Amino acid sequence: MRALLLALASLAVGCASVDRVDIDRVDAARPLHTFSIVARDPETGELGVAVQSHWFSVGTAVPWAEAGVGAVATQSFVNPAYGPDGLALMKQGVAAPDALAQLVAKDPGEAVRQVAFVDSQGRVAAHTGKKCIAACGDHVGAGYSVQANMMENERVWPAMARAYESAKGPLAERLLAALDAAQKEGGDIRGQQSAAILVVKAKSTGHVWEDRVVDLRVEDSPHPIEELRRLYVAHAAYEHMNAGDLAVEKKDIPLAMKEYGKAAELQPENLEMVFWSALTLATNERLDESVPLFQSVFAKEKRWVELLKRLPACELCTDAQLKAILEKCGVK
Fold it and tell me: What stretch of H or E contains 40?
């Protein structure tokens, strides 16, 4: 693979040999011929990028985003440095089009690169090198860009643009709609393998882990976009669980149960969610309501009984509450 990449890069930059600096660049390159979208939500200010490729673990190289700064997709014969370098420039206040232009101008392999930037103000730019593998191209719209290379046909990226513009809901759902549209139109000529989505907040909290709204990857799957959607539903369910836990901390039990209910609607077979919902009821003077929930969990998996017995030691319930639950549920 290294020799192939070096040869392709030599052809791309029009030279007979590659110097040491270029070898280092190309050695890091991976042929991520793929389709992606970068976008800023004009209402929330969230920034995001989503991608699919017939290549293992595309999420480790193509998508980059930083809260309050911007989002980047770097693909084709990918130079991952466009991600951190582009974000660094945009963080300094350089507009996305200028930041991309600066990096492209310094890149001897720009002819085989495909890159898109969007910044926190919604300014967008894309670059599709003239030697990217057909079908390839990009479309820059209001606050977003879609780009693709090595596609089945030239209808892929226009379909992504239409899908994104017509989709409703949170930014993550509209990004996924664009991926769906690309695949329905033919997608990558080689097929499917991995996908990823990254969405960050409009403003940084100062804590990277809090800035990520959605951060999901499918490393290897025959149907990565379908799997990414499944994970997104699970993610949404657990976000409701987190909101329910926060409501419990604030002693707002009605709100907690509402959030837990939404989680259960999204993941009806998830015993974890049912169990903790039941525990919240039982420890907040609603034991009778908790019993059918506990019983449904215990009937499917006895190990939850053992877990329940360990909770008084962690002060998640009292010994008296544990005894009442076990007696009401008819378990020992």
Answer: strand 34-40
Describe the crossing of helices 303-310 and 271-282 by its angle, rounded to 10 degrees: 40
Q: What DSSP assignment string belongs to 169-181?
A: SSHHHHHHHHHHH
**Over the stretch 34-46, which tens digit does the pLDDT of each residue have?**
999 999 999 999 9
CA triplet 214, 219, 222: central angle to 5 degrees?
Answer: 115
Which residue ranges form the domains of the chain, and what is each CATH number?
A: 30-222 (3.60.20.10), 237-329 (1.25.40)
Q: In terms of pTM, does the model score above 0.90?
A: no
Angle ∠(177,181,184) on CA atoms, nearest 5: 135
Q: Closest by alpha carbon to 34, among 250, 195, 143?
A: 195
Q: Residue holding tokens 């985003």? A: 65
Tally helices (H) and strands (E) across the chain. 13, 11
Tell me the per-residue pLDDT of 146-178, one tens digit each, with 9 for 90 and over: 999 999 999 999 999 999 999 999 999 999 999
